[in-house]
Design brief:
By secondary structure, the protein is α+β, with helices and mostly antiparallel strands. It has one domain. It has six helices and six strands. It has a four-stranded antiparallel β-sheet.
Length: 201
């Protein structure tokens, strides 16, 4: 039974470590706003930090930041409990691994939010800024004039700057949504046939 716990928690741990290693490297070797291109203008490292949610979104200023960090901590406790429950009750392995990915991403960003304010930014506990660096503006253009609201406005896909923790959460959530019927399928109970009852007698 212990082996069933090893793979998901080891996977989560490796992702958390990799996420922190990448963030630390970016902090040491890059300045804010610097870009290192590895796929022309369509893929690069772009050092930025944010106060709030995944993909650079922000919410509620300092109070919102504190609330979000505390919510993340409670959410991680719930995810850990859920992961242990899924393993204990032998749920689908794919589901278990995807929950492990979500756990890894949540913990990776909690480390930033909780401790980076003290370690790097001379701020209080729970007010750290999350480090983002992956930026993939695959294509840019302008909305046609007939498009409502955004008529003739420029657009860019994919605009958000994110980190490994964000990616881990997204992969886990999307995979669960795509394969939920497989993960949560109910086995139909076998109906005993009259012949089988005669054999038993």
């Amino acid at each position: 039974m212990k082996a069933a716990y090893t793979k998901p928690f080891l996977t989560a741990t490796l992702i958390i470590v990799a996420d922190q290693v990448i963030k630390t490297w970016v902090r040491i070797h890059m300045y804010m706003g610097e870009e290192i291109r590895f796929f022309g203008s369509h893929g690069m490292l772009h050092y930025t930090e944010n106060n709030g949610m995944a993909f650079g979104m922000e919410w509620g200023g300092d109070v919102g930041k504190l609330a979000l960090t505390l919510f993340r901590i409670f959410a991680v406790c719930g995810i850990v409990y859920s992961l242990i429950y899924l393993i204990k009750h032998k749920y689908n392995r794919g589901l278990i691994m995807n929950v492990a990915l979500i756990l890894a991403g949540a913990v990776g960003n909690i480390i930033d939010s909780t401790f980076y304010g003290i370690i790097y930014q001379h701020g209080p506990l729970f007010h750290g800024r999350v480090v983002d660096m992956f930026y993939f503006p695959l294509f840019r253009g302008t909305f046609p004039s007939w498009v409502p609201i955004w008529s003739n406005e420029p657009y860019e896909f994919f605009r958000p700057v994110f980190n490994l923790a964000d990616a881990s959460i997204c992969v886990g959530v999307i995979a669960i949504l795509l394969f939920q019927k497989h993960y949560f399928k109910h086995e139909k109970p076998e109906v005993a046939s009259p012949n089988s009852e005669m054999v038993e007698e």
